Amino acid sequence: MNLTAENTAIVIDSTADFPEAPERYPNFRVVPLYVLFGEESFKDYVDITPDRFYERLQTEAELPTTSQPTPGDFLATFEELAPQYERIIALTIASTLSGTYGSAQAAAEMLGGDKVRVIDSGTVSASLGLLAIGVQQRLQRGTTDEEIDAFVAHYQREHHLLFTVNTLEYLAKGGRIGRAAAFAGNLLNVKPILAIRDGEVIPLKKVRGNPKAFAEFREHFVSTTTDSPNLRVGIAHAAAPERLQALRELVEYERPHAQIEIATTLGAVVGTHAGPGTVGFFWFLDE
Fold first, then answer.
1. Which of 38, 205, 270, 283 is the most buried (most CB within 10 A)?
2. Are 8-33+68-157 and 159-285 in the same CATH fold?
3. Of the candidates 285, 276, 272, the residue with the CA atom closest to the CA atom of residue 154
4. What kind of fold does domain 8-33+68-157 have according to CATH?
5. DSSP 3-state assignment of 75?
6. What is the rounded distance in angstroms from the CA atom of residue 3 to the CA atom of residue 21?
């Protein structure tokens, strides 16, 4: 089957931090996860904006929690798309980080047939968004299931994801700290450089202060890339817009032909686990 942007829809979840995706690409839909302040439940990016979330986070005594979409949430989106599209590709946050993949799979089975393909991205945030854009670009020129599978596997091997947080408290309390627990303890003015590999948060290095953290970002970015219009970049921040701007300037100076595809604020769900002050840097050479 020849898959195109006209006959194939892409469904992502809100942890892609790409809420404008349906505006950019008419065949995209976003299924929100939930953030809970006590008994109050909010749909990510729908009922609560990132700015409002970080404002509220400053005044809450208890950290919020998150939950995955229900199979019914995904099913409603699949049923909306099914009459319009021959194929639906659902790309979800890493199954090791959330049960979202399982909900999407259950919804696909409820819909029946083979219209929906659910793919575990193995990643999160703008990295998931970059993967979805890569799939879309293949749809725009015509592709197949086999080519998409090969691309996803290539992306999972070759993409880069770095982030740094102000504190490991949020990752630890959300149960997402992984091997980064090795960095737990006194982080006063110490910035952990973290990555996600195979769906697990892993520690790379500890440096002192934001300038050295950005120097590490720069070194890793420059050493693993060449200047090319096929270099796709995502940048994200949590209540730290000045850091987002610094990353944008880094990319524009070091790799002026690169495409900054996503520049975003981390939504409430990813922000719950990363915490204010987090900055993420994502890139991939789309060969």
1. 270
2. no
3. 285
4. Rossmann fold (3.40.50)
5. helix
6. 19
Domain residue ranges of the chain, discontinuous segments joined by +: 8-33+68-157, 159-285
Beta bridge partners of 3: 143
- Chain segment 38-92, per-residue pLDDT in tens: 999 999 999 999 999 999 988 988 889 999 999 999 999 999 999 999 999 999 9
DSSP-derived 3-state class of residue 108: helix
- CATH no. for 159-285: 3.30.1180.10
The sign of the CA dihedral 220, 205, 100, 55 is: negative
81 burial (CB, 10 Å; 0-12 / 13-18 / 19+) is: buried
Confirm whether pTM is higher than 0.85. Answer: yes
Ranges of H-type helices in 159-258: 169-173, 210-223, 241-254
The HSE-up count of residue 201 (CA atoms within 13 Å, CB side) is 25
